[in-house]
Predict the structure.
Amino acid sequence: MSPNFYFVTAAQASVLLPIVIGVRNYQLVTPAFRLLLYFLMLSIVFEVQASVVKQFYPNNMPGLHLYTLVEFLAFSAVYYSHFQKNSALQLFIGINAIVFVAVCLADAFWINDIWSLNPLSRSYSSVSMIFYTLVYFFFMFRKDTESYSMTHPMFWVNIAVLIYFGFNTLYFMLGHWMMKHKEMASLGLFLHNTMNIVANCLFAQSFRCFKIQKAVS
């Protein structure tokens, strides 16, 4: 087996780190972060189905379409919960989620198809998530709470989301083009898997913060 195989496997397995820490601190975790934990657990199911489906069908793209939708809705719910004191932002997130569902359907059945990549919905998701992270930082910097933020679970989630979607936006947008160029496809996949590992480590830190906060209080 090639080194690339082991790296991809490591990237897939990295999700176990935040899951283990999240489960250990489950009693301390807020409802929004429990939803994030459930999503991370569900992502394992998607990884397994992707491997299984690929053995019997030309590719595993239908699962990717569904995963993109579930991922967006999960993170949208987390940000919706965080901005509970800002009804305008919550309304925007809710409307944007509805629009995204329409974008996913269009990407799967009209613009592209269920058996091909979904660059439109993945790109829309990335841009939306980056916007949410920037809004988070805007309000955080206005409060000037640097020391508090380092022990705040949402701070680390925000960093993870910004890094993962920020680095992968072009990869999602140019997916069809990259598939036609083997070297670019390999580079894009390598960067995607790297950011996946980084994001999962940051998610793990966010769950760890609940224990840190309890120790400090």
Notes: The domain at 3-216 is CATH 1.20.1070 (Rhopdopsin 7-helix transmembrane proteins). The CA atoms of residues 62 and 179 lie 17 Å apart. The first helix runs from residue 3 to 13. The mean pLDDT is 91.
